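Hey, resending since the last one bounced:
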Amino acid sequence: MIDDSDVDFALLSLPGGSFGWMLIVVSIIVVLMVAAMSNNEECESRRCPEGSVSKLLDHECICVVEARTK
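The structure tokens again:
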């Protein structure tokens, strides 16, 4: 799944060249952002066992439980 780290990578990969390349890269970044938001919403809508919530971490949708300290 595409997540926010993919958008960050694309932003850091911006070339310093001509406007044409910049427009292509910005278009790719927008597509990645939309895909990341969609994947995040899809993951959050999944059901998990009681006491845990779904999170998109490292390109995977997993159920996590909040850490508790004594």
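The chain has a mean pLDDT of 81.

Sorry for the duplicate.
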